[in-house]
Structures are given as structure tokens and as C-alpha cells.
Design brief:
With about 200 residues, the chain is an alpha+beta fold. It is built from seven helices and five strands, in the order ααααβββαββαα. The longest helix is centred in the middle third of the chain and has 22 residues. The protein starts with a helix and ends in a 9-residue tail after the last helix.
Length: about 200
Amino acid sequence: MTASDLSGEPDGQAPQVQRSGDLPGVPDAFQRLWVPHRMAYVGGQDKPGDDGEGPQCPFCRSGRSDDDAASLVVARGEECFAVLNLYPYNPGHLLVCPYRHVASYVDLTPSETVEVARMTQTALRVLAEVSAPHGFNLGMNQGQVAGAGIAAHLHQHVVPRWGGDANFLPVVARTKAVPQLLDDARGLLAAAWPGPDRTQP
């Protein structure tokens, strides 16, 4: 990803800087970090239009994709797969999803439940090997009210954590500084993933 991807300027041209002091109004005491590329997430660009199964669901699309690198799929099992979060909290933020389009944890079959657990354990081991995090957050947000961005397709979050990774930016600027590109993270994790679930880095 280049600076032009973030700024909207063609390659080779310097991004435009908008200074509040040059605009009408009374200047205030705040500095601002402009991140217009985040509007894709804020505006729900990749959210499905409805709760149904099919190409409008990003997890159904990833699960059925023939191009694991483009769809950010790290590993594939028989009934579940691991994919990078397109809007990660931290580098290596993985989602373990069933291929089947179900919303609730209680809707998983016994074999799906076992494979979600097994792939989550493998994700922890691979992230520990590749990234040496200090800890992890694991969890499922069930329903929009509980924080699920895409509530209709179950997904388990595996988020690596480091001391000091929660700084002022998310609180003050609604911005998360992620120091690793998605393609790079996916390649490292896919290469380190063991056994039959491994995809091409």
C-alpha cells in the first residue's frame, strides 16, 4: 500500500495537507490526524445489505473464494477456515469462521464446534510463533448489540496483544495504528500454519 492509496493522490504526487488554521473559523487547541481511508469501515462499505447467505456476506465470499491470498484466508479446514480481519485491531487479528452461514454459536454442529476450537488453538500457536505477542483476546460477539460487525455469520476473534498496544489514538481519534500490512501478515501466518489446513503463503 502506498501513500497514494491512503491520500487519494496519484502515485508520484505529494498528498494534500489540510491545515485547520487556513480555514474559516476560530482555531482550537487540537491537532488532527486525518484518515479518510477509514471511512470505508465507518460507512459500512463491506457490510452485507441483508443477513442472508451468499455473495453479499464477506465470510461466505472468503470461504468460497478460489484465491486465498486475495481473500486473506490463512488456513482451511473441513468445515471452518481462518481469515484475517479486514479491519484489524492489531496485526495478525484472525477470525475463525464456519463455512456454513449461521449466526449463533448454539447453531454449530458438534463437528463444527470441535473444528472452530481446534483452529482457534492452532491460531494461538501460530501467532505466538510468528509474532510473539504478550497475550490474546478471544471471543465471539453474538448480535449487533453485542458488537458484532457482521452478526449473521458466526466468527471467533483471535486478537494478539502487546503491552502498550492500546494507546490514545482509538480513544481520541477513532484511529488504530497497525504497523503491518495485511498481505504481509497473511503470508507469514499461512507459511507457519501446520498440517493439512495450510494454504499457499
